[in-house]
């Protein structure tokens, strides 16, 4: 393996490849992503007008976020290392008559190929699935243009997130398959912010994503104690 492609967890690629055919089943394993996607899209749009913007979606999977950004007028490139997921994404975009450039490439390699080429970089629900999340943050900082935005989301690491995101979501409510998350890979907001600063990004905003069991819906909150979103900017030069 080329050193630039070091940041790969084969078991994670296999996990998502095995579920690739379920990406667009809104009642299947990816139901939580479909439920939260309108909220994360709106949060992005609250910070930047996506119309006409060039966007790269890191860890795009089957294209749930990529498609919603394309519908908002963005020129979207989706990258992932699970080829089966990308095949599903391409077929679904074709059926939806959306032009999205899906590529089988790592964030680190693509950052070498296309530095400072994007107005917006997104990486949602992926950092907790890679061995080296700082490497993804560095690639994001490289891909974004000066003055551009980087939007990240992941899970906080504390007792509450273990209770809600693992015990609650995977074992009690069965929202996610058991073993979806590894608590040791969760990142506290302070840790993620420090990674961003290390690579020249400034934190602009942090918000929480809260699941409400009674309504079975998500909402944006000011509490980042479990799921959270972080908006960062590369200073204009």
UniProtKB/TrEMBL annotation:
Coiled coil: none annotated. GO terms for molecular function: 2-polyprenyl-6-hydroxyphenol methylase activity; 3-demethylubiquinol 3-O-methyltransferase activity; polyprenyldihydroxybenzoate methyltransferase activity. SUPFAM superfamilies: S-adenosyl-L-methionine-dependent methyltransferases (SSF53335). Pathway: Cofactor biosynthesis; ubiquinone biosynthesis. Keywords: Methyltransferase, S-adenosyl-L-methionine, Transferase, Ubiquinone, Ubiquinone biosynthesis. S-adenosyl-L-methionine binds at residues 40, 59, 80, 124. Its EC number is 2.1.1.222, 2.1.1.64. It catalyses: a 3-(all-trans-polyprenyl)benzene-1,2-diol + S-adenosyl-L-methionine = a 2-methoxy-6-(all-trans-polyprenyl)phenol + S-adenosyl-L-homocysteine + H(+); a 3-demethylubiquinol + S-adenosyl-L-methionine = a ubiquinol + S-adenosyl-L-homocysteine + H(+). GO terms for biological process: methylation. Belongs to the methyltransferase superfamily. UbiG/COQ3 family. O-methyltransferase that catalyzes the 2 O-methylation steps in the ubiquinone biosynthetic pathway. NCBIfam families: UbiG (TIGR01983). This is Ubiquinone biosynthesis O-methyltransferase. The gene is ubiG.
């Amino acid at each position: 393996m080329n050193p630039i492609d070091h940041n790969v967890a084969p078991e994670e690629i296999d996990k998502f490849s095995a579920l690739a055919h379920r990406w667009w089943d809104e009642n299947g394993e990816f139901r939580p992503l479909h439920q939260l996607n309108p909220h994360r899209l709106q949060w992005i749009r609250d910070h930047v007008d996506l119309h006409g913007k060039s966007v790269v979606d890191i860890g795009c999977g089957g294209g749930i976020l990529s498609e919603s950004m394309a519908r908002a007028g963005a020129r979207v490139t989706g990258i992932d290392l699970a080829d089966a997921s990308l095949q599903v994404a391409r077929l679904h975009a074709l059926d939806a008559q959306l032009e999205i450039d899906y590529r089988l490439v790592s964030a680190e390699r693509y950052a070498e190929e296309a530095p400072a080429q994007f107005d917006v970089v997104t990486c949602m629900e992926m950092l907790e699935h890679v061995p080296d999340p700082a490497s993804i943050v560095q690639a994001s900082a490289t891909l974004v243009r000066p003055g551009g935005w980087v939007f990240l989301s992941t899970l906080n690491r504390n007792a509450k997130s273990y209770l809600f995101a693992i015990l609650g979501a995977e074992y009690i409510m069965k929202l996610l398959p058991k073993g979806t998350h590894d608590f040791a890979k969760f990142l506290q907001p302070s840790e993620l912010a420090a990674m961003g600063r290390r690579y020249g990004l400034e934190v602009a905003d942090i918000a929480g994503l809260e699941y409400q069991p009674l309504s079975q819906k998500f909402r944006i909150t000011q509490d980042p104690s479990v799921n959270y979103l972080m908006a960062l900017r590369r200073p204009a030069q």
